[in-house]
Write a structure and sequence with these properties.
Chain C: Belongs to the CPA3 antiporters (TC 2.A.63) subunit B family. The complex is a heterotrimer of chains A (about 775), B (about 120) and C (about 170). Chain B has about 120 residues and is an all-alpha fold. Chain B contains three helices and no strands. In chain C, the strands form two sheets. Chain C has a two-stranded antiparallel sheet with strand order 1-4. In chain C, helix 1 runs antiparallel to helix 2, helix 3 packs antiparallel against helix 5 and helix 4 runs antiparallel to helix 5. The chains are: A mainly alpha (about 775), B mainly alpha (about 120), C mainly alpha (about 170).
């Protein structure tokens, strides 16, 4: 087993991806029941990770991996401690329930297989993210979760709202991912390691580095966008365009917690500095307040839950950055509780939507008789969310108040914030979980009945788990909470809070929270109307800003495209050659590399001079030719002159080749040109001729000067000498040119003849393509 | 001797670039042909000029006699000639077919892919 | 270019040029010449034949499509490079053998077959381009039939063909 361990873990990490491949086939073959089969993939991975529990609880870590590119110090390596293991269990455990739930929720949808495939793809990405040890692997999985989130939000891609939400989420979280990459590169540069497990011991070096703040800000940009912190919170409510299972899984229980995970993971390394302890609680607190306030306005069950999720994420970030061991313990407990109750509540909202076709809390009422099991799950989850005794949420809230309440002004401020936030969340929890089920049954919901088992299993299990975990605190603390807190604080931490209320300030604050929450719940319609008025007076938020940004980006790109690509070939060519002239001449002038004025060559032989002159005449004739046939003949003149020049200077191979090529060129040029019926003269006007001539002369001059300059330095003969020395001895050839072509540089020649062949094919295709064009 | 070559090569490049700046694809084509020769001569001259003695090892010797031409640029140019010829043939056919389809060799009139009054892209999502 | 002189001279000229191209190809390793030049000479030879008799005649004379010949050449060159794998030396290493043929030692090498591949690629591609252009520019009905070769004029050939055809028809 020990030897098999890493291989098994590797398989477990890739099981969801295998499931993603199998999903479309399973659904096509078995219909909705295929979801049970697909749930086996995450369930197996869940069981595998459960096997690590005793080991991790004992304070050990499990690592493994395979070298990927050793020369770059890159590896596929994973690292399981309390934090990673808890996240892995949440991902695979809730994932199993979500897959089953999706089987019923999406039943009859033509793309159900694709949906499950995306869900499993996300699961694999998220699992990879939380166990990654190497930076690069972390980043790749991080972006993969963004991409799969994009696919799932935009799943219903025929609606524009879904497309917009998907794109928005991708831009915000993907952009944050790029910041994260930059931040990771900073970390790598500062510490010289590329693995999280090695980074832990280098915290002091990192905190003292002058680049600490830059690295911190970049990492925070990644974490805050992913976890929807203010001012990036707007994408998460929009992401509710996705089907309910996605909201329950990605946008409450797992993916949005990736940012929190990253902060928790880096807490021992980057935490404990003033910047950390100011930025995190500030933005977290602001997000908590923003989320609850905006949530108050909503009437859609999913949107209310989405805003409370934003608020909860703010609370988690605030606690993570608060800087005391108790705050970390509180964050751990709240994260666990939140995953359980929020996942359950989203699934309840989905079930209600699935059965009634509505999600508006002001219109839904009296469903308790029609959907008793769903009601039970909703109630249990809401009690946990409200933080009432006997539930896991209560443990979390007690711990939060215990951590925050220490008497100094900062603590009082954040305690106040937490009380207000929690009270509002209490009210919203019951607005979603109680309001639709009590009261007189609305006429619109007549004939509604309970959902099938697949739809109930998830919410009920999660909600009950929130109760059981709190009732058996010894077990849950020992295996889950304590190891996780130990991993975050990097020292042995034991959580021992129980459900028994104990007298003290925390309990008092809890009671205050509940009373406040009850007040708001009682007057929720008034509170909603008031909040609407406040928001109207505030004006548009960052969501509108995103639209303006995107529209501006499109306009800007159109402007740039029109400027750089006006669609006229001559402008491109002119720009290219102006740049060429600048590149040739400016360095010669600027760096003082002008060649010395050469002496008049006296060693020139008469025939050499004659052929140079003929070539020149040929060029002039091409330029001055009035019609095209003359130009072609003149082209032949300079070509043959060049061939003779090659011959005169010891290159018979070149000479013959040039002769043949010139002959063939003239032949095929004539073949084509005689078929084109063009205007006899196409001379350009003077206004165009002059600038063209200036550019051309500048380039020509540049090449002359460059050549003269390069002739002033001695030629590097090493390559020539190598070919000379081995041509006969090793390659058995006396014609050194040919030996270079076919032997020494044979691979180059192979590439070159491939090019010749491809041109032949392209010409053939161009000539042939006419057949069948313009079919009437 | 190299000086005159440098001047000639400058003329080659100048003429080639002047032709390539034309609007008419046929002239551009002639420019490309001239450019190929200019580049070949540039390579040839950079490898230093030696009169008449080709880089062929005489019978009975194992290496080239002193004073023979440099084989390295020749090997580069030999393949370059053939490649630039096939490239030239391809451009020629492209010009020819463009003329057949569009009825012109004026590049300003070839606006099929980039029409003059192209509308804005959609601003929605 | 349907002139009598060209049509008379072209077959002989083409044959000579093809022969010369192979000569240039084979001597390329030790004297000026080689696959590129040989291929170009052969291509010009076929172009001349095409100008004299039209594209159809060249295609018939070549038997294979020119691009097939080019493809075979590229294949040959690649294989010549790959042979070295069998001997555990790097790609494109030249290998030589010296079999004795009629008492004379004939040096053969992968380098030589590589050069032959180059020859075929250049020949095939350029003939293909030239033929495509010629064919495209000449109207179909004006295509000129080649002069009948002496072999085709011989009566025995026709006689030998005729009985076969008759036998087929009678079956």
């Amino acid at each position: 087993m020990a030897a098999m361990g890493p291989a098994l873990t590797f398989c477990a990490l890739f099981l969801p991806f295998v499931g993603a491949l199998a999903a479309p086939f399973a659904i096509t073959r078995f219909g909705d029941r295929g979801a049970w089969l697909l749930a086996l993939f995450p369930a197996l991975a869940f069981m595998h990770f459960c096997g690590f529990l005793p080991e991790i609880a004992a304070g050990e870590v499990a690592t493994g991996g395979y070298a990927w590119a050793p020369s770059f110090n890159l590896s596929f390596s994973w690292f399981l401690d309390g934090l990673s293991l808890t996240f892995s269990l949440l991902i695979t455990g809730i994932g199993t329930l979500i897959v089953i739930y999706s089987g019923a929720y999406m039943n009859g949808h033509p793309q159900q297989g694709r949906f499950l495939s995306f869900i499993l793809l996300f699961m694999g990405a998220m699992l990879g993210l939380v166990v990654s040890d190497s930076f690069l692997m972390l980043f790749i999985y991080w972006e993969l979760t963004s991409v799969s989130s994009f696919l799932l939000i935009g799943f219903d891609h025929e609606r524009e709202a879904a497309r917009r939400a998907a794109l928005q989420a991708l831009i915000v979280t993907g952009g944050g991912g790029l910041c994260l990459l930059a931040g990771l590169v900073f970390l790598w540069n500062i510490t010289g390691v590329t693995q999280l497990s090695l980074l832990v011991h280098l915290g002091d070096a990192l905190r003292q580095s002058p680049f600490y703040l830059a690295a911190l800000l970049l990492v925070l940009a990644g974490a805050f966008t992913k976890s929807a912190q203010f001012p990036f919170h707007f994408w998460l409510p929009n992401a509710m365009e996705a089907p309910a299972p996605v909201s329950a899984y990605l946008h409450s229980a797992t993916m949005v917690k990736a940012g929190v995970y990253l902060l928790m993971r880096l807490n021992p390394v980057m935490g404990d500095t003033p910047a950390w302890e100011i930025l995190l609680p500030f933005f977290g607190g602001l997000t908590l307040l923003t989320g609850t306030m905006l949530g108050l306005r909503q009437t859609d069950m999913k949107l209310i839950l989405a805003y409370t999720t934003v608020a909860s994420l703010g609370l988690l970030v605030m606690l993570t950055g608060f800087g005391s061991p108790h705050a970390i313990q509180a964050a751990v407990l709240y994260l666990l509780a939140h995953s359980l109750f929020k996942g359950a509540l989203f699934m309840v909202a989905g079930a209600v939507d699935h059965e009634t076709g509505m999600r508006d809390v002001t219109r839904l009422a009296g469903l308790r008789t029609a959907m008793p099991v769903t009601f039970l799950a909703a109630l249990l989850a809401a009690l946990s969310m409200g933080g009432l005794p006997l539930f896991f949420g209560f443990l979390a809230k007690e711990e939060i108040y215990l951590a925050l309440w220490s008497g100094n002004p900062r603590a009082v401020f954040f305690t106040l914030l937490a009380v207000i936030g929690n009270a509002l969340m209490f009210a919203l929890a019951f607005a979603v979980a109680l309001k639709p089920f009590i009261g007189r049954r609305a006429a619109a919901t007549a004939g509604v009945h309970e959902g099938p088992l697949m739809l109930l299993l998830g919410p009920v299990l999660l909600a009950v788990l929130g109760l059981v975990a709190a009732l058996a605190p010894g077990l849950s603390h020992r295996y889950i909470s304590s190891p996780m807190a130990s991993a975050i604080t990097d020292e042995k931490t034991v959580i021992d809070i129980t459900t028994m209320p104990h007298w003290g300030m925390p309990l008092l604050l809890s009671v205050l929270t509940v009373l406040l929450g009850l007040l708001v719940y009682w007057r929720i319609d008034a509170a909603r109307a008031g909040m609407l008025r406040v928001l109207e007076s505030l004006g548009p938020g960052p969501d509108r800003g995103f639209d303006i940004l995107v529209a501006g980006l499109i306009r800007f790109s159109v402007l740039v495209t029109r400027l750089l690509q006006p669609g006229r070939l001559e402008i491109y060519v002119t720009a290219t050659f102006i740049m060429l002239a600048v590149a040739l001449l400016v360095p010669l002038f600027v760096f003082g590399e002008m060649p010395a004025l050469p002496a008049w060559p006296r060693d020139m032989l008469i025939q050499e001079a004659a052929f140079l002159a003929i070539a020149l005449i040929g060029i002039i004739a091409v330029l001055r030719a009035k019609d095209r046939l003359t130009a072609i003949v003149s082209l032949g003149i300079q070509g043959f002159a060049v061939a003779v020049i090659f011959l005169l200077f010891g290159a018979p191979d070149l000479s013959f080749t040039q002769f043949m090529v010139e002959t063939l060129s003239v032949v095929i040029l004539t073949l084509v040109m005689t078929r084109l019926r063009l205007d006899p003269s196409d001379h350009r006007p003077l206004g165009q001729m002059l600038p063209d001539a200036v550019i051309a002369i500048a380039c020509g001059l540049g090449f002359t000067l460059l050549l003269l300059r390069s002739l002033e330095v001695p030629f590097d003969m090493r390559l020539t000498e190598f070919f000379n020395a081995y041509s006969k001895v090793i390659a058995h050839g006396a014609n050194v040119v040919n030996v270079i072509i076919v032997d020494f540089r044979g691979t180059d020649t192979l590439g070159e003849i491939s090019v010749v062949m491809i041109t032949g094919l392209a010409v053939l295709a161009l000539i042939r393509v006419r057949a069948g064009r313009r079919a009437p | 001797m190299e000086v005159l070559f440098a001047v000639l090569i400058g003329c080659f490049f100048g003429a080639a670039i002047y032709l390539m700046l034309s609007k008419h694809t046929v002239r551009i084509l002639l420019g490309v042909a001239l450019l190929g020769n200019g580049v070949n001569l540039l390579l040839f001259t950079t490898g230093r000029l030696v009169r008449e003695v080709p880089p062929i090892i005489p019978a009975g010797l194992d290496t080239l006699a002193p004073g023979t031409a440099n084989p390295l640029p020749q090997a580069l140019i030999l393949t370059a000639i053939v490649i630039s010829f096939s490239f030239f043939a391809f451009l020629l056919v492209l010009t020819y077919r463009a003329y057949q389809e569009l009825g012109t060799d004026d590049s300003d009139d070839m606006r099929l892919a980039e029409p003059r009054d192209e509308p804005l892209p959609p601003m929605g999502y | 270019m349907n002139t009598l002189i060209l049509r008379t001279v072209a077959p002989g000229l083409t044959a000579l040029m093809l022969l010369f191209s192979i000569f240039v190809l084979l001597r390329g390793h030790n004297e000026p010449g080689g696959g590129f030049i040989g291929g170009l000479i052969a291509a010009s030879a076929l172009a001349i034949y095409g100008i004299a008799f039209g594209v159809g005649a060249v295609r018939r004379a070549m038997r294979f499509h020119p691009m097939t010949i080019a493809g075979a050449g590229l294949f040959m060159s690649t294989i010549s490079g790959l042979v070295s794998i069998l001997f555990g030396v790097p790609f494109m290493t030249g290998l030589w053998i010296y079999p004795s043929f009629l008492g004379a030692e004939v040096p053969l090498s992968t380098v030589m077959s590589f050069d032959l591949g180059v020859y075929l690629v250049v020949l095939g591609s350029i003939v293909s381009i030239a033929l495509a252009l010629e064919q495209d520019s000449e109207p179909e009905e004006q295509a000129v039939a080649p002069l009948p070769s002496p072999a085709e004029l011989r009566p025995e050939v026709k006689k030998r063909r005729d009985p076969r055809r008759r036998a087929k028809e009678s079956r």
